[in-house]
């Protein structure tokens, strides 16, 4: 088995045409903090996270995922990963080197099997962060990122082979087959998931809140602000996490969650969950039904950034 050198999820970077509107939403409504911003680029931190930022917004003509970033423990691990990927024929965007983003560090970027830009980095300076207080309904950290894939089996195989991601659980349907793979890089149930979709795109980005009370307060705050809710509040079976899904101003699905399972990786065996059973999608029974409307919203637009590295 390939040694796992990825340690954790760092951030997800989004490019959008209406940058000002997106920035106002993520800072004024969603609860992130803008730091290290420049003209047309903002780095948004979660107050409870040591990561320099968990979302980067960039002004662009086309809506796209700029990149998904993961951490590694050391520069030597970064070099090992870059060498392993190159030897396997994976297209690198550039060789490992010093990063010019907040916190610095050492890293490189590559294209995955469907053309998403992925960054691996080490030695990024930690951000001064704080404990989120009781009742404070803002994100503690970026929990996970879910991508749509036109070839979910191939995408799962890519991340397993090249980056030693492990399968935690599979979501399936009796008629449609296997629909989502929950993948982990540490003991969190999933840092990334791969959903079957019509095209590669962002399915959703999920943000962890302090606890169930803060999660419900955050859900209510979004509803009072008039943010479009597409699914929730409820609690999934796979991962056992709570969920409330909303749309950002550009139609990206984003989630408030909490209490994602932490696994004993030595003893965990992946499960197969049939989402035609209502308790699989929502143990509580409080969310609206998972239907074609919800699924269609999460398909998102075709990503315009495939096999095109972001300029920054």
Search tags:
312 residues; alpha/beta; 2,3-Dihydroxybiphenyl 1,2-Dioxygenase, domain 1; 2 domains; 9-stranded mixed β-sheet; 8-stranded mixed β-sheet; 6 helices; 20% helix; globular
What does this protein structure show overall?
The structure is a single chain. The protein has 312 residues and is of the alpha/beta class. It folds into 2 domains: 6-122, 2,3-Dihydroxybiphenyl 1,2-Dioxygenase, domain 1; 141-299, 2,3-Dihydroxybiphenyl 1,2-Dioxygenase, domain 1, CATH 3.10.180.10. Helix content is 20%, strand content 35%. The protein has helices at residues 19-29, 75-87, 152-163, 212-224, 278-281, 292-299; strands spanning 6-16, 33-38, 41-45, 55-59, 64-72, 97-98, 106-111, 117-122, 141-149, 166-173, 177-184, 192-196, 201-208, 229-235, 242-247, 253-257, 271-274. The longest helix is centred in the first third of the chain and has 13 residues, at 75-87. The protein is globular and about 50 Å long. It holds the Pfam family Glyoxalase.
Overview in brief:
The protein is α/β, with parallel strands linked by helices and 312 residues long.
Number of helices: 6
> What is the β-strand count?
17
Strand portion: 35-45%
* Cα separation of the termini: 34 Å
Q: Helix-strand pattern, N to C?
A: EHEEEEHEEEEHEEEEHEEEEHH
**What is the percent of helical residues?**
10-25%
**How is the main sheet built?**
9 strands, mixed
CATH architecture of the largest domain, by name, is: Roll
Spans where pLDDT lies below 50 across 5 or more residues: none
Q: What order do the strands of the largest sheet run in, or round the barrel if closed?
A: 14-15-16-13-9-12-11-10-17
* Mean pLDDT over the full residue set: 96
- Helix/strand class: alpha/beta
Our Rg estimate from Cα atoms comes to 18 Å
